[in-house]
Each structure stands twice: as structure tokens, then as C-alpha cells.
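Work package 3, deliverable 3.1, input record:
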Amino acid sequence: MNLSRPDRSARLDALAAAYALGTLGPRARRRLDRLGQRDPVVAAALRQWEWRLAALADGSPGITPSPRVWEGIRSRLGLTAADSAPGSASTPWWSSLGLWRGLAAAGFALAFALAISLLSPRERPFESVVVVLAGPDAKPALIATAERGSRFLTVKAVGDLAIPRDRALELWMLPDGRPPQSMGLVPATGIDRVALRAPAGVALQNIPALAISLEPPGGSTTGAPTGPVLYTGRVERTY
Amino acid sequence: MPTSETDRSARLADLLARTALSDQAAFAELYRLAAPHLYGVALRILREPALAEDLLQEAFVNVWHHAGSYNSAKAKPQTWLTSIVRNRCLDQLRRREPDTVTLTRDDDEPEMELEGMGPTPEELLLSGADANSVRSCIEGLEGGQRQAIALAFVQGLSHAELAEHLRQPLGTVKSWVRRGLERLKKCLDAAGFAI
């Protein structure tokens, strides 16, 4: 059954609606789930109906769950500091403690990139800046490297990053205690070079970390990240 | 859209972005803000507090790992979160064999408060629809269509359960649901509500 054929769009729409409403039987539900996993047209129909119906519940009354639930979440994720402390709400995200914890979790990703750069065929002692940008799962998503004296940062996407077609990735410097500064757009696949205002060793001298956010095509127009920050990485130096 | 709702959306989107950075305080705040709504959705579908609590826990563990995949251009943060919870609830409901799903529950179960004393599914569906355009779309459905969709949506009833509950032939109920959804889609899309 090829549901993504244009002449079957009405059928797909009806199935997706029943799926999202929940009236589809268990077998049909599983089958549609499987189809959605390999067919983007089916997946899009399912998401659209899920969101259309989920929006109907936006204002429905809430019920406070037992504190057990949050305790369970905390212990399952091994969260340490987080209690319901809304006091941190005024802290900008780039200076939040969580960012630095996340970066620490990405430590193994750094080892991975250093190993790559150490395997460089050139045997001369090199002085490089290396940043491994990883998401919350700590898996490397992009690697940014530059020779200390270079005015270019080479950014390589590890594999194909699943970015919506109408979005772009923007790279940011995260200076200590100051707002992020844009470094420009970076690719979701392949390799690209980002121009630096000064040699890498100077441009990134007081920059402890970089981050990548999801932005409209052409990048953020506000001078600050507007979309979710997808990847972060600590700036490491091999000198 | 009222400003308070816009503010809430912006706040939730910000918290999701920071959760994607493994910011634990932001995640805690996200939970504080979003959990009651999501728990309400789950409890009305699953009808058992223990199941709904487990599901909410699963959903938030999932949100912690996948907050970065939230795309503000495609859905409001609460809609995105609700769809995660609803989808998991429906998976769980439909995984059970049809004959093990029962509409009757023990009298000592606390969730009994949800029924009888509380609003009907139709009232819940209408009260849940924040925007006027959405509410008028729901009100524009015929009686049977609205009732069947409300029961399925709010309480997660299957076609067979709907037929039993509404004392109507299965075929009638199925066609109410199908036509009601078609009509709802047309109306919502015309109101510019669709994504």
C-alpha cells in the first residue's frame, strides 16, 4: 500500500486523522506507525493531524500530578541539582550551570575529535583549536577546527544532521558572562569554512564554548539565538 | 490570541531550548509549568492515576532527551508536548487487547471524580479549545459527530467502545467520526488554524 501516492491523499488523510484521534485499531495503528517511519509523506500527515488535534486540548484543565512523578524523572535521569527552583529563571541560558554540565557530559566527544586531529598525517607539532559540538545525547554532531594562526574555522557535520529544510544552523561564540556572538551559518551536511575576524588563537582566546542554534534561513535577525540551541561544545586548544 | 498565552508559549519554547542544553533548572521549570496540563490529558485517556503517572514520567524522560528536536516554526510548544503525551497514551491503550479495555472501574478508584461530577467530554473539548475559531469549529459539528469525537479525543475511546457507549451501530459511529474529522479539518484550515 503506497499511501504517499497523490491519488491516495484522501485515504491517507482519513487514516492519519483516525490515528491521531486514537480510533484506529491496534494493528492498523502499528502498520501506520511503521509506514510513517520510512515514508516522510505519511509521517508528515500523522504529525499534522497530531498537532491539529493536540491544539484542541490546549486550554483543557490541568491536574497536578503526585510529587512521585518528578522524583521518578529525577532519579531516572540522574539529575542532581534540579529541584523546582524557578529562581534560576532569570539566568540567561548561556550562563546557566546546566550548559556547563552538558558540556562536561560531551567530554568523550572531545576525546573523539582530538583523536581525529591527532591522526592528522602532518607530523609537525601543531597548535589547533578544536570544538566538538554535541546535542543533549553527547553524540558529536559537528566538529570545528582551526590552526592557531588561521583565519578560518573549518566546520564539518558528522553525518547528516536532520534539520528541517526551511531552517539554518547558526554558530555562536559564548563568551564568559556576555551574550552570544554570531559567527555565521554552518552546514548541516559536509564541510564549510567560517571566516574569523582574527587568527583563531586570538579570536577564540576568551571563548570557553561554542553553540549552534536552529534559525530561519539567513540566520537570526535579532543578533541573539531565536530558535532552540541544538549543539554546544567546549573550545579546546592543543597548545 | 491572549497575551498570557503568547507569553506562556514563549516561556515554554525558551525552557525547551534550555532543556536541549541539558539545563536541569530549566527542565524542572518546564515540568512545573507543563506537567499539570499533560497529566490531565493522560489521566482522562488512561483513567488510572498509576498508569498516567508512569506515562507522564516516560514522556518527560523523552522530552529531556529530545527537547532539541522541538521546532517552534511547526507547532506551539504545548501542542508539541501534548501530542507526545497523547500519542503515548493511545499507543498504550491500543496495545491492550480490545476485550480487556473496560469502561467500568472500581468504585474506590480516585479517578471516579473525573466522571459524573466533572464536565462531560464535550464540555472538556470545548473548554480546551482556547481560540474562538477552534471552538466554533467544534460547535459546528453535528451532535453525533461532536459527541463521538469528543469521547474519542478526551477519553481515548475506540470505535467499538464508542458504539457501546453511544448505543449506536458500529458503522454509524465510524461514519460520525470520519465525517466529523473531515469537517473539523476543513473548518480549522479555513480559520487559518492549520500548521
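Residues 97-117 of chain B have pLDDT under 50 and may be disordered.
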